[in-house]
Amino acid sequence: xxxxxxxxxxxxxxxxxxxxxxxxxxxxxxxxxxxxxxxxxxxxxxxxxxxxxxxxxxxxxxxxxxxxxxxxxxxxxxxxxxxxxxxxxxxxxxxxxxxxxxxxxxxxxxxxxxxxxxxxxxxxxxxxxxxxxxxxxxxxxxxxxxxxxxxxxxxxxxxxxxxxxxxxxxxxxxxxxxxxxxxxxxxxxxxxxxxxxxxxxxxxxxxxxxxxxxxxxxxxxxxxxxxxxxxxxxxxxxxxxxxxxxxxxxxxxxxxxxxxxxxx
Length: 264
Fold this sequence. Notes:
By secondary structure, the chain is an alpha/beta fold. The protein has helices spanning 56-66, 94-105, 111-121, 133-145, 148-153, 177-190, 209-217, 231-240; strands spanning 13-20, 25-32, 35-41, 44-51, 73-75, 84-88, 131-132, 157-162, 168-174, 200-203, 222-225, 243-249, 252-257, 262-263. A 6-stranded mixed sheet has the order 9-8-10-11-12-13. Helix 7 (209-217) packs parallel to helix 8.
């Protein structure tokens, strides 16, 4: 028997008792689960991220790709440690990864350094994909229909991968917006879809520098969001050739970079 797709996966939410105010009524509610995930390469811990359990291998692969690594696979570790994934990434340079983390953490101070770091791992996005403004406008609603855990908890971000005709290829939810994007990119890697030059990414919230970075590394030409982009996200999108559309809601959108890919 298959699970009802309108219900969240059982590992993504937990039941809690809450006091509703005003009124003082106690009742059951559901919240998103958040747990740490340790990523290892050659048995060495390289990162810990807080995530919603599920699709952990995809998350690890997407994270590695976004950090400029060239992973081959992701699996449970030999010691079967809980909340841990082992990546196979030949040529792994721990010093380089540490430098990448430093640049990402300091991008608000030194945008130029962050842009240069992304340029090393992400050639300009190419491809002849164009889509209509009407199609872009409906993507957040189609993504919302796939957000079963959000419907249950109100506490999860989502990323969806769409075909040029607006068909949903893959959707993932997570307490971290970056994790949701990594899970989708990891799934695309496993399915042999990278680079995503013939696809569209849509996210449920705002557009940060890191989300644009991940889209650029994945080779995706169009990134759509319900919320607003940051200044550095726009700068990176223009630099890497990504079309950035924000505030996509109620049939409207703001296009911040490379508008030639979206037709009237």
